[in-house]
Each structure stands twice: as C-alpha cells, then as structure tokens.
Hints:
Number of domains: 1
Largest sheet: none
Helix content: over 70%
Amino acid sequence: MPPLTPSLHLAARLRVTFPALRHRNFRLFLGGQFVSLCGTWMQSVAYGWLVLEVTNSAFMVGLVAMLGSLPILLFTLYGGILADRVNKHRVIIGLQAGMMCEALALGVLTATGQITVHWIIGLAIFFGLLTAFEVPARQAFMAEMVGRAELMNAIALNSTGFNAARVLGPAVAGGLLAAFGPAACFFANAASYVAVLVSLLRMRPSEQVRPSVPVDLVTSFREGFAYVVRERWPRALMILTATFSVFGYPFMTMLPVYARNVLHVGAGGYGAVVASVGVGAAAGALFLAGFGRPRRQARVALGAAGLFGLVLAASALAPHVGSALALFTLCGLTMALHGIAANTLLQRDAPDHLRGRLMGFYSFAVLGLAPVGALQVGWISEHASVRVAFAIGGGVCTLMATVVTWRIAKVAGIRVLAVLPRRAA
C-alpha cells in the first residue's frame, strides 16, 4: 500500500480523534452550520446594538429578547412532538429558508431607514417561531446522522463550530458595525444561509420509519413528560438547565449594556466581549470532542454548572476590560462543558421514539424560558445595574447547582459523580 500523503494522514488522524467525521452527512452538516452560525452571531451582535441605538433602554433590549423568545416558550414542546413524526431533514431545510428570509427583510428595512422598534419586535417573533420547530428537529437529527456511539463526539464538534462562530462572527460584526452599520451584518447573515441550505440538499439521509398510527398530541406530551419526571438524570438536568436559562444565560442579552455602560467601550469592544465568550466555549467544546470520556459526563455536567455560577457572579465585580474578557472567557468555557455534557446525557439514553420530544423539553428549558430570563435581567439592569443583575444570576445558578449535586449524591451515593446511572432508583 502506498504511503499516505500529509493531507490524507491528517484526515485519517482527525477521523480517529473525532469519529463523528467519518459520516459524510455530518461533515456536510458541520461545514454548512459553521458558515451559517457565523452569520447568525453577526446578526445577534448587530441586533442588540440596533435595539440599544433605537430605544436607548436596557429594559427594551431585554424586552425585545423576551418577545423574540416567546414563540419558543409556546411552541417548542409541540415542535419536539412533531420532530418524532416528520422527516427531520426536509423540515430543517424549509425552516432554514424561512430564517434566511427574516435576515434579508431585516437588512432591507435597516438599510432603507424604515426600521422601527415594531419591525424589530415583529421579525424577532417570526424568527422565534421558526426556531421553536427547527431546534428540536435539528438536535434529534444529530443522532440519525452519527448514531448513539458517536453522539457525544458529534455534539461536541457541533458545539465547537457553534462557539468558533461565536468568536469569528462578533469579531467581524464589530468591524462591520463600526464601518457600515447593522444592515451589513443582517445581509451577511442572509447570505450565510446559502451554505447551510446547500449542505442540507447534498445530504443522503437514510429513510426514517414513522409511526403508522397517529398519536394524539396530549398522549405524546404525557409520554415525554413522564419520561423526564421518572428518570433521575433527565429530571436533574432539566431543573439545572431551566434555572440557568432564567438566571444565567440571559447575561448574553445584557452584554451590549455591560459593554457600553460598565466597560465604556463602543461597537468594536462589544464585539470583543461577545467573542471572548465564544473563545472559552470553543475551547471547552473542542476539549470534550477530542478528550471527553462518556463515563465522566455526569461529573462534567454538574461541576461545570457550579463553576459557571461562580464566574458569572465574579464578572459583576470586574474592574476593567481585561478582567471582564478573562471572566467571560471562563463563562463560555463552563457553559460549553455543562451544555454538551447535559445534551449528550439526555440524548444518549433516550429511547429513539422519544428523542424528538426530549429535545423539545430541552429546547424549552434552554430557549423557551429565555423570555423570563431576558425580562428579569433587563428589569434588574434598568432599576439597579447590570452588575447587580449578573451578581444575582450567578448566585442563583451556584445555589441551584449545589442543591442538585447534593441531592443526586444523597439519593444515589457519591459514586454517581463518576459513573452515570441509566435508571432512577
């Protein structure tokens, strides 16, 4: 056999270290998603800055984020039920096309000077509605592309791409914002959806078996809810995730306010702050993709949850830009470690016929509760300060992580932190 060329040798090594890359569909998915996510993060940075410019209100920044997430609160559970009953590949293509149209409309309205807070809210709600159905389908589709054995590797690689885009997107967005304004970021995001649509259309997904007898929505919901309540780890992880979504993750919504009012920096500095979160998250995701071990997922999920709360609370005391960037990098790192481990634990042991619904509940906890989180962090930032909001959020997250870890250890013994149980006691 002829010796491998350097490029082929590198490809072979990557597939050993990152086994999910062996799957053609997943490679296409990962590449298209990365390009699209760069555009999504550019739009996210420009969106928060645009709302702040139009309204000059920290509360309105939180309110717009809350209203944009409201459809996720209302429809994500239904989206999870549908994900178990439809062709996920086709549904994702249609929803991604709708998201491209939303970004294009936002760019046109901003560029022509017709953008108002009402248009911003309306388009945010439309995007949230699409997200409510797209996220559960996309999350459940991951297992169909790679299988159970390589699911953690796939989730970690996908998170690596997500967070690498979180670094690149805001960095580019900061320059575009300063040079051309928010509209350029919105147009760039619309163009980025072409990459993900092309990658999805090039896939060769296997035929999926659908239930021959329709199941009513109430029965489907009850079946998924009973699984989450009955099983120890889904129950614990959902409680943690819901708490973080209300009190922890909304710190991202207030970063434009934090950058302007606390750090006293402009659009470029704001982009650097958002990018620092992405640097930490990308590092954590890449570590789990290359070196994460399945038997340590429970320990990672609980440990990273507690550390995240502590670091977020510490960011409220950051005296200058340098310390803030370091702390937000650690926030990103712990967020990624907890999120990947929790997502993998939930999907890996879920029955195939319930995976879509389980991802619906998870998406509800991560995204659906975001309206409550955005509203509370915006209200506290408006009436006290953004530092106080971060301190309260970090304290609540630390407390809940401690309680959940103590409860798990008490019920199952300290051994649970090293070995993942499959069933509740």
